[in-house]
Design goal:
By secondary structure, the protein is mainly beta. The protein has two domains: 93 residues, no CATH class; 114 residues. It has one helix and 18 strands. β4 and β5 form a beta hairpin. The longest helix is centred in the N-terminal third of the chain and has 7 residues. The N terminus is likely disordered.
């Protein structure tokens, strides 16, 4: 039920439509509030608001009036919140759907980018988001012009689940002036640069590229979370 203009207000309508507020007395990932008056039972449609005392570092729960912990979920896919979705000092609103606390507060979008020089072995690039990025894009470029033009362009993308890569290579023979061209794709996240292949992995701190071969050139990186 819901409160409708011109219609009687039922007790259940009040229970399901009041915004219950409480001060967070829990910990990171385990939030707890004790509204006044106390909530005596969870009911689908209840709104809860609290000022987070901690920034979450992963999947989190909310415990209201010591009724028991309930997982906080987000989005139409109803998935766990991830590190940084709840930040200390932020006013957080959730709605109980009968099973989970659905996060209503918009999840902040963080973005960073930079330019790195490709280096052999294991290369780490600190993205600075403080959480696992939802999207990562690497654009590598390299060219030489000693015995003709030789240029690589490699672009890979990662959205937290799906990953793909496309690379292109151009060569111009200095004696004939004739160009040659190669390209390739991969469903694993790799980046190709100057004949070397780098396998890309991502965590809450770094973009890591493990190179096979000796890469040369520059990498423009972008991370969004």
């Amino acid at each position: 039920m819901a409160i409708v203009a011109g219609q009687p207000i039922l007790a259940a309508d009040l229970v399901n439509n009041i915004n219950y507020y409480g001060t967070d007395t829990g910990s990171a990932n385990a939030y707890a509030i004790a509204p006044t008056p106390a909530v005596t039972a969870y009911a689908a449609g209840q709104h809860f608001v609290f000022k987070a005392a901690h920034t979450n570092t992963g999947a989190s729960t909310l415990n209201v009036s010591s009724l028991g912990t309930v997982a906080i979920k987000k989005g139409t896919a109803v998935v766990d919140v991830v590190a940084g979705d709840i930040t200390a000092g932020e006013m957080i609103e959730v709605i109980y759907d009968g099973t989970y606390m659905q996060l209503v507060t918009p999840v902040p979008i963080a973005y960073s980018n930079g330019l790195s020089t490709a280096s052999s072995g294991t290369q780490t690039i600190a993205h600075g988001l403080g959480k696992i990025p939802k999207k990562v894009k690497l654009t590598g470029s390299y060219w030489v012009n000693s015995s003709g033009l030789h240029m690589y362009l490699s672009i890979g993308a990662y959205d937290g689940t799906h990953q793909t890569n496309v690379w292109e290579e151009w060569d111009t023979n200095v004696s004939t002036g004739l160009p040659s061209y190669n390209q390739g794709t991969s469903t694993s996240y790799t980046i190709n640069l100057a004949g070397a292949t780098g396998v890309v992995t991502v965590d809450a701190t770094n973009i890591t590229i493990t190179w096979t071969g000796s890469p040369s050139g520059s990498i423009l990186w972008e991370a969004e979370g």
